[in-house]
Fold these 3 entries.
Entry 1:
Amino acid sequence: MTVNEIAEHIDAEVIGDGGISIHGIAKIEEAGAGQITFISNPKYLKYVEKTNASAIIISQSIEETLPDLPKNVVRLKVADPYIAFLYVLRLFNPPTDVISQGIHPTAVIPDSAQLSPGVRIGAH
C-alpha cells in the first residue's frame, strides 16, 4: 500500500513522497524501511531523528516540536495520531471472523428459537 493510499483512509496531509510503498507497521524505535509508525507523545521525540521508518503519522501540535526528520521519512499530518494509527493497524491487520457462519454441531438451541439466516453460533 502506498503512503497516499494510507493517507486517504486516515484523512492525512502527506508531506513528502506519497508514492512510497508501505508493507508494515512498527513502534518508532523499531521501525525500518517500508514501515509506518506514529508519534504523539513528546517522550518519544528522542527516537525521531534515528527512526528508519519510511513514514510517520504526526499531529499539527507535535510537528512544531519535532526535530528534523531524515529527508526520506514521509510525514502524514492528522488531527489525532493515536486514532489514525488504529485505522492503519486495521488496514494491515483486518479483523477476521472468530466464529464461522452456521451453527456448531455442539450448540444447544431450544426448539422454540427463531434463528436469522447467516447466524453464527459457536460450540456448546
Note: DSSP finds three helices and seven strands in the chain.
Entry 2:
Amino acid sequence: MVTASLYRQLVPAAPLHRRTDRDTYPSPEAELRARLAARLRPPDARPRLRAPTLVSSWQGTIDGLLMAFPSWGVADPALAAAYRSVITSMPTGTEFVVVHHRAQRASVEGWFAEAGHPAENVIYVPLADYVNFTDWAEDAYASVLDGVDGSLCLMEPWEFPRGGDALIAEAVQDHTGVRAGQAPLIFQGGNCLVGDRFWLLGKDYFADSLALVDGERPPVLAPPSTAPGDFVTSLYADYLDAGRELVVVGTDRPIALRELYGTRQGDDYFLDIAADGAGTYQPIFHIDMFLTLAGPAPGPGGRFRVLVGSPAAADRALGTQSPFALDDVYDAVASGLEGLGMEVVRNPLVHRPELGATFTLAELKAMAARPGNQVLLEPLAELAAAGAVDGSAVRVRAWHHVTWNNCLVEAGTDRRRVYLPTFGHPPDDDLAPLDAAMADLWAGLGFEVVLLGDFNPFARRQGVVHCITKYLRRGA
C-alpha cells in the first residue's frame, strides 16, 4: 500500500490534515497500545440510550451545529474564508458548539460576532494547543438522540484513526449538556446518512465492524445462534438507531482499483495516485462525498429522493476524461438505491488530478528499492513497457474528488434550503458552470440555494462542507 511516508515523497506539496490521513506511530508496539485505548478505559456506568435515533441528514431546520477550528485552519486564509462562509450563511437563531484551540479563542469569537450570531447561541469548547485535532468535525462520532427523553449523545466508535479528534466528544460533554458514549462498532459520521424510515451506512465500516466482533478479542460476544452479520446489524440498532432500517451501501466485491498506475499520454509519462480517497466497497471512502438525501418528492406517495454523483456527467460537461473515476461503481450504487424504491437524481462529480513533482524513472526505481515501497514496482513496470527509460521524466498526478453532494440540507416546514459549496474560483474557473448547474438542480427540487465560499482547498484534502460540520439538533 501507499504509506503516508511514500505519499509525502511522491507529493511533497500535498496539503496537510487530509480527511484520509491516519495517526502515525514511532513503532508497531506504540500503534498496538493506541488501538487498545478503548479497552483500557474505565467502565462506563451510564446506561445505553433507551431508544436511540440518529439526527436526520435532511429533515427539519438546522437548529444546532458543531464545528471544529484548529489553529492551523484559523491561520490559513483560504480555510478560514470557507469556515466563515458557513457561519455567515446560517440563520441567526442557529446554536453552535465550537471546538477550538485555546490560543485562537478571540479570532473564532470574532467570526461569530461579525456574522451577527448572539453570544448566548455559541458554546465554546477549548482544547489545549498541543491537541492535534482537525476541522473534520463530522467523523469521530454520530449524533444520537434518546427517543425517550430527547437527550443528545455523541456516540463514538470503538476505534478512530485520528486520536486528537477522538477527544472532541468528551470535551463537548464537559462544556455542554451533550453526553458522550461509545459503541462496540466501527463507523465514522461521514459514512452515515440518515433518511426517514432508513439510514445508510457505507459498506466499508460494516465490514470493519464484522472484523471487530469476529476477531480474537471482540468487545462484545455474539450469541452462538446468531450470524455475525445479524449480530452487527442488531448492535447498530442498539447503539445508533432502533427505529430506522439499516441499509448498507457498497459493491458485492472489493473494487478492482490499484493505488498506483504508470500511464503514458502522448509523449508524457505519469505516475497516477488513482485510489486516494476510494473505499474498498464504495467509490469514495465516505458516502457523504457522493450521496445526498433530499427527502420525499412532493405530493402523496412521493418517493424518497437521493442525489448520486456521476463522474461521467462531469466529464461530459467539462470535456474531460477521468480514467480512474469508477463510473460503473457509482452507477451500481444508483441502481441499488432505485431497487429499494428511491428516486435517484444523478449529478456531476469531478475526479480531478493535481499535478505534482517530477521524477526520472531511475529515481522512482531507487525509491521502489527502499523497504516498504514495493507498491511502486508494478506501475514502474507499466511505464517501462510504455517506453520510458531511466532518464525519462515522470510526473506524479494525485487524484481527488470535487463534489457538490457534500452539502448541508434542511427541509423544514417553513424553510427548504441547501447550503452548497462552490469550486469555480481561480485557478479552477472551469468548474463555475457546474456550480451553476448544481444550484439549478436544487432549485428545481424546490430548495432555496445558498452558495458558500471556495471549497477547493478542502476538496484537495478529500473533504468538503458536510465534513466540517455536525448536525446536533433539527427543528420542525
Note: The radius of gyration is 22 Å.
Entry 3:
Amino acid sequence: MRRRAGFTLIETLMALAIVSVLSLIAYPRVSSSMTKSNLRGARTQVANMLAAARVTATQGNRSTWVIFNGNVARIEAFPRRTVGGSGTRDTVGTLVNLSTVYGATASLSGGNTQVAYDPRGLATGILNSPLKISLTKNGYTDSVVVDMLGRVRK
C-alpha cells in the first residue's frame, strides 16, 4: 500500500491550535500599541492645528482661534478675508473630528473650549498656568500644552 504525501487531520489541528494560542497572547499588546499610536496621531494633529493657527495669526495679521466643539476641532480667523459665506470669521483648513479619525476624546483644562492667538502669535487668555489639551482613549492619555507665549509642547 502506498502512503500519500500531505498532512493528517491531527497535524493540521495541532498547528491551528498553536497559531490560535500565539494570537491570543499577542492581541493585548497589539491592541495597546494601536491605541497609543492613535493617541500620538491625535496629539500631532492638535499640535499641527495650533501651529497653523499661530502662523495664520502672524502672517495674516489677524486673530485666530482653535475651537473645540466636543471632539471636533477647527481653526477660525478674524477679520473675514474670503468673499461669500456667512459670519465674520474665516474657517482655515478643514474640521477634524478626533473621535472619528483617531477614536480619541479631547478635553481642555479650566473648562476652556478654544485657544486664541492675537496677530503677534501670542496665546491670549492664558495668564497663570499653561493650557493643557488632554486626549484620552481606552484608559490611555496624552496631552498637548500651550503656554502664554503661544508655544506648543507635546
Note: The chain is about 35% helix and 30% strand.
